[in-house]
What does this fold into?
Amino acid sequence: MIYIDLKDASGIASATVKITGSDGYSATFNMAYSSTVEYGNPQNPIICERWQYTWAVPAKNDVAYSFLCIAKDPLGNTGSKTLYGYATTAVDGYFMINDQKVTVESRITLATRTVTFKFVATSGAATIINVNVDIKKDGTIINAGYLAKQADGITWIRTYTFTEDGTFTVNGYFYTTGQSYQRMSVFCQIGEGDLELPQLNMLQMLGLASAGIGLALIFTGKKH
It folds into this structure.
């Protein structure tokens, strides 16, 4: 939703918004009167007219936009204000081990030493550069490797064979330009035996926060 609040706007005849994107996008839309809004002291408020337009943000990643809002009175006099925004598609997904979805809290036991790691992107797959899984035993990385991107464009897969039974920590990450995200940290018991959990420090106990999903339009400032 794009809107402007116009003070002393009883004579406004029309309002438009021209949207220009850094990718070459350009379009102009007519805004519609919505309601009156009040600002300031409730005893002596400033009353404004709100004009707005519902804009469907194009599904493109990392595009900067300018929004030139122009109001016009019946005599053709105009006033304008420019806003600036940035649209980006959030990136997220989840990992699976032998087709079992896992999270940062999962604890699993496997009867086989050969496992298949899978990552499925739920949004922003086109911006993911690499997906990686590392395996630790007693706090030391014993193996690390990238998953192979599949033809569907949203799935990455890697098969690994453990060389011994025991309890392991398996971590999964995906990478975009200049940023990494961890979406898996599980305790995995290979073979028979009880799942022996290593001692955790406070940072590990806190777990991992999930990123938002969907298309976000972030306003970065305004200029008269």
